[in-house]
Design goal:
This protein is globular. The two termini are 38 Å apart. 68% of the residues lie in helices and 0% in strands. The chain has 429 residues and is mainly α.
């Protein structure tokens, strides 16, 4: 292949990479379009021997998860229905696509794009929270806001508050450390800091309690690895200002007591079993399924086989489920065990934990990467661990928009680990 042809292919790949980062905060269609383009360009470069494969810490976990899914499908009640689920795995190659595409590209450029676009969407989401404004959807979808005590769940340009919250959590985490890193210019730090603040506001206003847990864990990881107590206090003050501003607004203009503000209600409801009954019932049904099928689960797409367990719980609790099996059990770990068996769950955990372990080791090593690159790794580590904790209360990795964001951050992490390994080989101690 000629140099000019190779350059054109790389230019096209760079275009799709930019579209991917632009789409993360608001467009699943744009994200899927970009992923498809990256697959095609990368395949072309492999065919022309202008791209090469390499080992990564996540590959074994992905393969074990897929093996678990195959085993569970073979033992499922409906073989064809189970194997039809495999089309949902098509995005699993995204971390590798991002790794290949970022080999010779500045990661900072794409994070700046993400910061600017996510900030604009976050401003829109904050307005939504107070007004219910929605210029992107019709009246039927607007009703899905579920008004709560005079406010609306912020959903940005998505259709569900946990989808938007799941993405905002990850974006907030990756941008926050960058706002403090003097390896970047003052303007770049300002863009990252504004993006961090606005995405934190979006995390609060999406009203997702699992997202709040994930954000708290992400901040804890940042403190543990790098941020000083002083910087933590800055973040805490920002969070308090956001919550206090909302509370004052509601008390002053809504004339309602603190306990009945939207945020107060959501926080209180997290501690009251009767307000979480549906989720507790789903978890119990999932645990009963695992007890009966501990090794292979029920297989992917196993909605019908789950129904008897749901009916049994309804009979025991004398209550009806608000959500049926098709919506998942609101715990990604129980859900994976049900669908992919014990092997699939082990693969899922290996996938995540192997990458997180490698990133944590790299952050703690004496500096090989530049300060800015290590700061990016810290944000990725915090965001992914926060998302893992949020997954105890929702099926976040099954959500397409959240999944794309997770896989992109994994790809960035792989790219930085690859650069660190290359730098170590070139500069042996």
């Amino acid at each position: 292949m000629t140099s000019s042809t190779s350059n054109r292919a790389e230019q096209i790949r760079g275009f799709f990479l930019a579209i991917l980062f632009i789409s993360i905060p608001f467009s699943i269609a744009g994200g899927d379009f970009a992923i498809t383009g990256l697959y095609l360009v990368t395949l072309y470069l492999f065919i022309k021997k202008q791209e090469h494969w390499q080992k990564t810490p996540i590959l074994t976990g992905i393969l074990v998860l897929l093996a678990g899914a195959i085993i569970s499908s073979l033992f499922s009640e409906d073989l064809l229905n189970s194997f039809s689920y495999f089309k949902s795995f098509w995005r699993f190659g995204l971390p590798f696509l991002v790794l290949f595409a970022l080999r010779d590209r500045p990661i900072k450029r794409y994070l700046l794009i993400l910061a600017v676009i996510s900030s604009l969407i976050a401003i829109y989401a904050i307005v939504q929270f107070f007004t219910g404004l929605d210029v992107l959807r019709g009246a039927d979808l607007q009703k899905q806001y579920r008004p709560l005590l005079g406010v609306w769940f912020a959903v940005g340009a998505f259709s569900h508050h946990l989808t938007y919250g799941g993405v905002s959590l990850l974006v907030f985490a990756v941008l926050t450390p960058l706002g403090f890193d003097r390896d970047y210019s003052p303007l770049e730090r300002l863009i990252f800091a504004v993006g961090s603040f606005l995405n934190l506001a979006a995390v609060v206003f999406c009203m997702g309690r699992s997202i709040w847990v994930g954000a708290a864990v992400a901040i804890g990881i940042m403190i543990l690895f790098q941020l000083t107590l002083k910087r933590f206090l800055y973040l805490l003050i920002l969070a308090i200002l956001i919550i206090s501003g909302l509370t004052v607004y509601q008390i002053r203009y809504g004339k309602i007591p603190l306990a009945k503000t939207a945020l107060g209600y959501r926080l209180q409801s997290a501690m009251i079993a009767t307000l979480n009954k549906d989720r507790l019932m789903m978890w119990q049904a999932g645990i009963n399924i695992i007890k009966d099928h501990p090794f292979v689960g029920l297989g992917p797409n196993a909605n019908q086989p789950m129904l008897p367990y749901y009916k049994e719980i309804e009979k025991q609790e004398k209550a009806k489920f608000q959500h049926q099996p098709g919506t998942g059990v609101h715990n990604i770990y129980i859900q994976n065990w049900i669908n992919f068996g014990l092997v699939g769950l082990a693969g899922y955990l290996l996938w995540w934990l192997a990458l997180l372990y490698k990133i944590a080791l790299e952050i703690k090593k004496p500096s090989i990467l530049g300060s800015g690159d290590k700061t990016i790794l810290l944000g990725i580590l915090a965001g992914l661990i926060g998302s893992m904790f949020a997954g105890f209360f929702e099926n976040n990795f099954r959500d397409g928009e959240v999944q794309i964001t997770i896989l992109v951050l994994m790809g960035i992490g792989l790219s930085l680990l690859d650069r660190a390994e290359t730098a170590s080989q070139n500069n042996p101690t």
